[in-house]
Amino acid sequence: MTTIPAGAASRPSAVTSSLSPAILGGPKAVTLDQTEANRWPIITQQDEDAVLRVLRTGELSSGHLPAAMGGYPCPHTEVLALECEFAEYLGLPVMDVGDLLPVFAGKNFRVAPNVLAHNNGTAAIMAGLHALDIAPGDEVIVPSTTWWSSVLTILHVGAIPVFAETDLETLALDPDDVARKVTSKTKAVIVTHLFGIPAKLDQLVRVCKEHDLKLMEDASHAHGATYHNTKIGLIGDVAAFSLQVNKLVPSAEGGLLVAKDPEVILKASRLGHYERLVPLKAIDHPYAKFAATGFGYKYRMSPVSAALARTQLARLDERNKLRNDACIYLSKKLAALGFQTFMSGDKGLENTQRVYFEFLVRYDEARFKVPTKAVAKALQAEGCLVSAPRYPLLHQQPVFTEGEWLKLARLEHDDAAKARTYNPADLPITTAGNGTLIKLPSFPSATRELLDQYAHAFEKVMANLEAIPKA
Ligand SMILES: Cc1ncc(COP(=O)(O)O)c(C=O)c1O
Fold this sequence. Notes:
By secondary structure, this protein is α/β, with parallel strands linked by helices. Helices cover 35% and strands 12% of the residues.
C-alpha cells in the first residue's frame, strides 16, 4: 500500500502515476465488491427458526389471560421475553411475574418492570414524552442533527422544540448551549447519541438537575455503547431505542422504552398499551380503570418482530465488535491524514465506548482549503461509498421555517408560541460542522483488504487536493 509522508496532506504532492486519483483518470482504489461487507441485517438460520416458531403458534398479536380470568388480552410472552433480555443486557432488574402480580404466581414467566416494547422507536419516544408529563406550551431542548422522530413527536404533546447547537467533539447536544437555551418554560431535554457516539451526559445531567428538567436519551443509534462504564440508556430519566432494520439490533420494526422508574413505564403503557392495563385489574391498580380504552394509541410490538429482535440482540456485542474493529482500523489511518474520526478516547470522548451505527468523519476544510464536496466526489470516483450525512438539519426544514409546526402542536392561538420563529441561519456552529462531515459505510463485515483500499483512496485524494476538481 502507498504510504504518505507526514505532512503530505497539508502540502499536496504532484500527481504521480501511482497516486493518480480516479477523478483525474487514474485507477480506482476500491475495486473489491462491497455487497457482503455492507450487508445488513445479517439473517441466519437462528433468526429464521425464531420467526417460524412464533408464526407457527398462530398467536401473532398480543397474548390472552386464561379463560378463568376473562380471556382478555395481555402482553405476548415473546414480547415480554425480549423486554427481559434487553433489561438483562442493560443490567436492569427482571422478576418473576408472580412477584409483581400475585395472581400470576406459579405462571413461571418473567417481566422487566423498566422496559416497554413498542411497535417502533417513534412510538417509544411518544410514550416517553407522555410518561414524563410533557404538556402543551412546555419547551423541550433538542438537537437539529438527529432523525425527525426525536423532535417532531414533541409537537404531538403540544410542546415546543427549542434547538440547541451541536457539540463538535461528540456530534450530540452542546451542554453549554443547552444551558443557554433554558427558560422558565423548559421541561425536558432530548439528546440523541448520534451515530453511536455517547453525548456529554455528565454535563447534560448537571444542567438538567440545576433546572429541574427531565432528560430523555434517544439511544436509537447506540445499542451497547457505554459512558463511564454505564450502558447508554441508563442515565436519562427515560431512553428510547429503535429496532428499525438499519439499527444495531435490527428487527421488522420495533422500539424499546427504558425508564429508571418502573412507575414511568406503567404511565407510558397507558398511551398505547391497553393490554398492559388489563392484568393490573388483579391488583386494583389505579390505571386498571383505563384498560377498556387505553389513551387512544396502539403501540404494542408484534411478537414476530420480538422474536427477530431477540436473536439479533443475542449477537449484538459480537457484531458491534466487528464494526468497531473495522471502523477503528480505518479511523486510525484517516486520523493520520488529518480527519477528525470521533474515536472512543478522543477529546470529549474520554471514558466512552462508542458503537458504529454509522461511521462519519470530519474533513478539515479550514486547513486544507478544498471544499468537502469536492473531496467526497473524488472519493466516490475512487469507488468509496461516501456521502454527506443522511439527516437534513431539522431547524431548516419547512415544517418549522414555514410555521406548520404551530398547527401540529395546536398552538395557533398561543401568542408566545406564535412569536417564535425558526430560521435556517440559526445554529451556525451546527450548520458549519455538518457541512464538513463525510459518511462512510459502517462496515458490518469488511475484510482488511477492503479497508486498506478505502485508506488508499483517502491517501490518494488527500495527496492530490490541489489537482482535484473543486466544483
Ligand atoms: C435517532 C433516531 N430516533 C428515533 C428513530 C425512530 O425509530 P423508528 O424508525 O423505529 O420509529 C430513529 C430511526 O429511525 C432514529 O434514527
